[in-house]
Amino acid sequence: MVGQSPLGPGEGSAAVLLQPFVHQVGGHTSMLTYDEHTVCKPLVLQELSFYESLPLAMRQFTPQYKGIVSVHLKKDSLGNLTLIAGPSLAPDSAGGDPAVALWHKCKWSHTQVTKTFKDSCPGKMLLRTDLQYHTDSLLEDANGRQVERKSYNPWGLHCHQQHLNRMYSKHNENKLHQFLLLENVVSKCSYPCILDLKMGTRQHGDDASEEKKARHIKKCEQSTSASLGVRICGMQVYQADTGHFLCKDKYYGRKLSPEGFRQTLRQFLCTGNQLRMDLLEPIVLRLKALLAVIRKQSTYRFYSSSLLIIYDGQEHKESADHHLPFPKTHGANPSRVDVRMIDFAHTTFKGSKSNPNPTPHDGPDHGYIFGLENLIKILQSLSEGK
């Protein structure tokens, strides 16, 4: 468990400057990078209750829970809003991931970020739904040497800026905020290709107001959530031919028909140079394993949770040359192909310490199961060329 209080003014070197997580493709809560293998997000008691009571069988399909850290909002000397977590080992300022260097180099201030999104989305603070995003200049490391240019999904920055604005408008700089520390499930990928799927036929939690309930029901009815039990909430696919990520956001996903959903799944496997059909079987096997686990989770309802499908856009040589699956690590889960459930702020189950519904639901989550079954069928049809 990480310490609960940030350090005082004289001990800032041991604090961690939280950076926007550059591979966040969906959701609305800001995900932040704590270290290379750890991300963090604002603590919600219902989600904490889920992680603390996590059934053993589900642990292979969820990020590892690493504890809680306290975070506070600060303004730097330039007036930029930053989030500081601590105590911790000092971050490696002499090198590290170029992604972290990107955020340092950009020095996003409130006005800069707002202007950026207004320019890209005139009239509203939404991202374009078909976006190839890249930096305009090569980054430099601490020694002034140019490092490899990568492209990044701007969705994380969008969520981060909204979160900073909310925190700054509601709280003073001295207030401590509790954040969950979770495994960075794409840390082993050089170019993470990520599909974020909103699962289930119902998205509102038991504690939703009538207005929020009606809003979520309408979203489901107008998207593939109702017909398939799953809709696309975000996506990034590394395009090896251009060196950029092709990104889709949740607004794109809401508009898709069942056939459009199927074609987007196919696009998720297209890395520019080739269609990664070799990944279909291991992904389907992983989804089937998850389905078997979900069917056994009585009283659980995973409302508004997401499912991530992940693979590395940097192909292994044997896979690129011979179109073979990646080497297996354990069971049916090849290395660099992963399936993880995330976002449990509205998950409920019998015995939950924060369950707003005194009467537990019966049996497994049939809406989630319906979505998984349809997802498996569509992926199998793609592998059969239908």
Automatic annotation (TrEMBL):
Query: Example GO biological process term?
Result: inositol phosphate biosynthetic process
Q: Which GO terms describe its cellular component?
A: cytoplasm; nucleus
A molecular-function term among this protein's GO annotations: inositol hexakisphosphate kinase activity
- InterPro entries recorded: IPK (IPR005522), IPK_sf (IPR038286)
The EC number on file is 2.7.-.-
Among Gene3D superfamilies, the record links this protein to: Inositol polyphosphate kinase
Q: Which family does it belong to?
A: Belongs to the inositol phosphokinase (IPK) family.
Protein name listed in UniProt: Kinase
From what organism does this protein derive? Regulus satrapa (Golden-crowned kinglet)
Gene this protein is translated from? Ip6k3
